[in-house]
TrEMBL record:
Cofactor: Mg(2+); Mn(2+)
Catalytic reaction equation(s): 2 D-alanine + ATP = D-alanyl-D-alanine + ADP + phosphate + H(+)
Gene assigned in the entry: ddl
Purpose: Cell wall formation.
Protein name: D-alanine--D-alanine ligase
GO annotation terms (biological process): cell wall organization; peptidoglycan biosynthetic process; regulation of cell shape
Enzyme class: ligase
One annotated GO molecular function: ATP binding
Cell compartments where the protein resides: Cytoplasm
Residues given in the record as Mg(2+) 2 binding sites: E311, N313
Cofactor info, note text: Binds 2 magnesium or manganese ions per subunit.
Residues forming the catalytic site: E16, S188, S322
Protein family: Belongs to the D-alanine--D-alanine ligase family.
Species this chain originates from: Natronincola ferrireducens
Recorded superkingdom: Bacteria
């Protein structure tokens, strides 16, 4: 059987650059070399593209871009070529690829921008399309679509620098504190704060505006958060539901990657009936937002067991210790097979 050529892209200009390096390292390490020829493409924080042929350890410790093996590279925009083009010693060296696996989190990677490049180039890729990636990255737009489709969502208000303070105060009066303040298009809880009073609210807004021009104010849900790992286009596979236990009620960036005080329960501490309702809700939201390939759908369960939408991650954390692969592993799907399924789906699509 002829090997598929898989271009794994990592790094990027996003604030989640380091997360991408960890996720990509796990993907590269676990791709079956009997099935795939793997091409490693790194994007620096400054947005420079290189083909990298060095050791995996240098990706893990973020020294890959200093390696002598790095050569400038670009993707051919000519539809049908399905090539990357290296620029080496004044020469253009093309290499055919079968599919791109963009292991990029956050802006310019998970928001539809790079997916647009693949679409223009006619290159198959793993994950959601341009529109879905863009919508899911924007917490305001995703909530509006999911709400319109009839699912429960938290009360929220999208604001900008021009928003009148009176409008903000009216929202506070309607939902009361605490209120979560979120950059509309950031991941990994970056820039998110929990406000317990007016001073913290406006301080949080100022902080969130450093990451995005649009900020979402969101009511607090008294309950707990659960997650669903989903793979598929039409026939969906849902992993075991997990549950986040956070003493502070806020699963921030530090807690997501250290679990210093928080704990992930896998499976979630819920009965089977509620578990099946959560899975059905997650699948419904996945389809409503047009997800393909994979996504992690995060939900809240309130004190009345009402299931409320939180967000969708179209490229969730992908290390072997991350929630997404672990939920699928718990349901019997090994990490290496997850990669096989995603590549097969991308090529078929």
């Amino acid at each position: 059987m002829e090997k598929k050529v898989v271009a794994v892209i990592f790094g990027g200009e996003s604030s989640e650059y380091e997360v991408s390096l960890k996720s990509a390292s796990s993907v590269i390490e676990n791709l079956d070399i009997e099935k795939y020829n793997v091409i490693k493409i790194g994007i620096t924080r400054e947005g420079r593209w290189f083909r990298y042929s060095g050791d995996l350890d240098k990706i893990k410790n973020n020294t890959w871009f200093l390696d002598n093996s790095c050569t400038k590279v670009m993707i051919s925009p000519s539809k049908g070529d399905r090539e990357i083009i290296e620029i080496k010693n004044g020469m253009l060296i093309p290499t055919k690829i079968d599919i791109v696996f963009p292991v990029l989190h956050g802006k310019n990677g998970e928001d539809g921008t790079i997916q647009g490049l693949f679409e223009i180039s006619g290159i198959p890729y793993v994950g959601c399309n341009v529109a879905t990636s863009s919508v899911c990255m924007d917490k305001d737009y995703a909530h509006k679509i999911v709400d319109y489709a009839g699912f429960d969502v938290p009360k929220s208000l999208a604001i900008s620098r021009q928003t009148n303070e009176t409008e903000i105060e009216a929202f506070v009066e309607r939902v009361n504190y605490p209120i979560y303040v979120k950059p509309a298009q950031e991941g990994s809880s970056i820039g998110i704060t929990k406000a317990n009073n007016k001073h913290e609210l406006f301080q949080g807004i100022d902080e969130a505006l450093q990451f995005d021009n649009k900020v979402v104010l969101e009511e607090n849900i008294n309950g707990f958060e659960v997650g669903c790992a989903i793979i598929g286009d039409d026939d969906l596979i849902v992993g075991t539901v997990d549950e986040i236990e956070t003493p502070s009620g806020f699963f921030d960036f530090k807690e997501k990657y250290t679990l210093e005080y928080s704990k992930i329960h896998l499976p979630a501490r819920i009965d089977n009936e509620l578990c099946e309702k959560i899975k059905a809700t997650a699948k419904g939201i996945y389809k409503v937002l047009g997800c393909t390939g994979l996504s992690r759908v995060d939900l809240f369960v309130d004190e009345k067991n009402r299931i409320i939408f939180n967000e969708v991650n179209t490229l969730p954390g992908f290390t072997t210790g991350s929630r997404f692969p672990n939920m699928l592993l718990h349901s019997g799907i090994e990490y290496r097979y997850i990669l096989d399924m995603l590549i097969e789906l991308g090529i078929k699509r």
